[in-house]
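Thought: the user asked what Flavin-binding monooxygenase looks like in 3D. I have the sequence; next I should run the structure tool and report back without guessing.
Action: structure_tool
Action Input:
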Amino acid sequence: MTSTQPECVDVVVVGAGLSGVGAAHHVREAFPDGSCVVLEARERIGGTWDLFRYPGVRCDSDMQSLSYRFRPWSSSDSIVSGADIREYIEQTAADDGTDARIRFGHKVIRADFCTETATWTVVALRGHTAVEFTCRFLYLCTGYYDYERGHTPELPGQSEFTGPVVHPQQWPADLDHAGKRVVVIGSGATAITLVPALAETAAHVVMLQRSPTYVMAFPRRDTLDERLGRVIGPRRAAGLTRWKNIAIDTALYHSCKRWPTYMRSVIRKENAAQLPSDFDLDRHFTPRYDPWDQRMCLAPDGDIFAVLSDGRASIVTDVIDEITSDGVALASGEHLDADILVTATGLQMLAFGAIDIAVDGAAVAPSETLTYKGMMLSGVPNLVFTIGYTNASWTLKADLVGEHFRRMVAHMDARGFDHFVPVRPDDMAEEPLLDCEANYILRSIDTFPRAGTRSPWQLGMSYFHDIVALRYARLGDPAMRFARSARASGRIGSVPS
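Observation:
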């Protein structure tokens, strides 16, 4: 069933998570007298921070840099819970008036751009009813993974296990782990988060990993921010703390990439200081890859090291032979007794929420496009998307994308253009969009847009570079065509910018 009357707005934002609520703010700044709707498939604000509800869920990024530039984090708490992050997003939407623009339960399934009218027609499902919107600009804030399912490899013998087998993405609200033996399969950020949280009440928790991950301790509370707040006031302190944290994260990342051997030794020394002297660091906390070839995991106040040191949890590095009725049999011959199995085995990536995108009726395969400035697609007019940093806070990039969108709209409106389109150079070579060796990325990266080998066709992972490129650099670019539609000018074609 399809509703008959499309709703016409200036911008459709897809997604009401951290990116979408931030995008709606920037849209309001770009169109102070315009209209915007935010289409959200779920029934609550928050996106990732509404979906994930497993024990201890949090972000590896500090809130001072994860918060929006236009609404600084006002607390000295640095690493906070997922519920706190969702509350921050929800309060931002309420204070900004964005909550009134959100249409919950609207899952976008199709979007088609018409060059003649310079408009998108967006189709969303509301229950079993298809609802249409038309807009000038389509702003995708869908994240990059599948909300319906996580990555769960088939474990041999899994059907024989008599207890619950749970993936963190579908954590049951009524799961009681108190006094139970829990085996968490995985070694990434989710496992590192789960183990200390479960260990608070479980009989014992084992983190079973096939290979180790780099982990560093990070303070939950920023004491420097507290001291600065008493001297110069909380708002000014928040700004300084934000820049301090961005600088530290950037320096850590570049040090790891430039001096990997030295940084291995630094991380090892930091880990050793928090673990018993006889702990096997080489086996359990020394990965085969260099630091930041995959995303670094953070342990707030070193919580994972604390529960390993006091015996509430243990870590096993081995290969699963099979799942048994009461635990996990390992290739080494060891058996891990368990009442609950948690498969913290990663995410499943999904490009743009699997929306069918078309231009003038011709389907667009994301994997056949190049990303322009990490926020637009070659050959696709009036579309902007947000993919944040993998080596820093996601919101840092999301805010810059929003600011650049505002500049684009102002440029177009001042010159009478109604659409833009990035045009791929004929000689441009391709490379994967994300330069990261995390397994969840490697599994699905071929379904995503590609990056070029030179600017502006790369997704950059440098906040300081992107500040210049997206906030200040001139908009004129041989690869970017601004145009007037046939309806507006009587012809179709590029117009000098």
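Thought: the tool returned a structure. Summarizing for the user.
Final Answer: Structure for Flavin-binding monooxygenase predicted. The longest helix spans residues 234-258. The CA atoms of residues 229 and 237 lie 5 Å apart.
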